[in-house]
Specification:
4 helices; mainly beta; 12-stranded mixed sheet; 277 residues; 7-stranded mixed sheet
Length: 277
């Protein structure tokens, strides 16, 4: 794990708003909610709601040649879905009253031990701009960069607070709320330490959130895109390159929604109107 140089304790809140600012413009990117028994991640401020959700399959083979397939267990949607990671590990995509859930057996919190999810972003113009003042219900988590990059990656790592406290006692980590990762193999990344309110069943865990500018992830320079990956298999499976691994993936936008809908199916609710006599 990368060492985090920081001060104080984690930020405690039920509701976090994550923004990214490059030069002069800031955009609202993610909403992170700490429920009593789960963490929910969504991007309600992305303007293109047509996407693909899937139990993605990463085919066996060396990591440098990894191939992720989405259509085999994929469905389209015309809504922005939420990723729900309950403390028991029964992960799923959902959106109350709008879509059928897409479920997968994930890892209970106690077995995560690090990487929980990653979000890849291309061209932030497709997100709503951040207002001068954030609604009081949100704890604002701002990432700021000196230049306006084309693509960014947000990563969430989940750890037990007792584990981070041990690192702190060993001089390798001081618990939150803000600092920078320090790893000789990569550039420093800004990091926030987030936690559920005290007395919640999830308050014994800390989510370490980092963000970095990356190379463009799309050949469509002017198109905004969002790719979420989470709900991973166990480390034992993920590190065995001789077998396939699965994860939950959502990707926005998609081309040819109607063609994909006919071929893959759709998770949107179908509203049925019954004739009354």
């Amino acid at each position: 794990m990368a060492t985090v140089i920081t001060q104080h304790s984690p930020y405690y809140s039920e509701d976090f708003l994550v923004s990214i600012k490059g030069r002069d413009v800031s955009y609202k990117i993610l909403r992170l909610q700490f429920y009593k028994k789960s963490i929910i991640i969504e991007s309600p401020w992305f303007m293109n709601k047509e996407g693909l959700v899937s139990i993605g399959r990463c085919l066996a083979g060396p990591p440098e040649k990894a191939t992720l397939t989405l259509e085999e267990e994929g469905k389209v949607t015309s809504h922005l879905v939420k990723y729900n990671h309950p403390i028991d590990g029964n992960v799923h995509f959902s959106q109350d009253g709008k879509v059928y859930s897409l479920k997968k057996d994930g890892l209970p919190f106690e077995n995560v031990k690090g990487h929980m999810f990653s979000v890849y972003l291309h061209n932030l113009n497709g997100f709503e701009k951040t207002e001068s003042s954030i609604k009081a219900k949100y704890k604002h988590i701002p990432f700021s960069f000196d230049s306006s990059g084309k693509a960014y990656k947000i990563t969430g790592h989940l750890y037990k607070k007792t584990f981070l406290s041990k690192l702190a006692r060993d001089g390798r980590c001081i618990i939150g709320p803000f600092g920078y990762t320090s790893n000789p193999r990569e550039k420093k990344k800004p990091a926030y330490y987030l936690s559920a309110p005290i007395s919640y069943p999830t308050d014994s865990y800390t989510l370490v959130l980092t963000c970095q500018s990356i190379k463009p992830i799309s050949q469509k320079e002017n198109e905004s895109s969002l790719l979420f990956i989470g709900g991973f298999d166990s480390d034992k499976v993920m590190n065995n390159f001789d077998i396939d691994t699965k994860m939950l993936v959502m990707s926005y936008p998609v081309d040819n929604l109607q063609e994909l809908k006919q071929r893959l199916g759709c998770i949107d609710y179908i509203r049925r109107i019954d004739n009354a006599f």
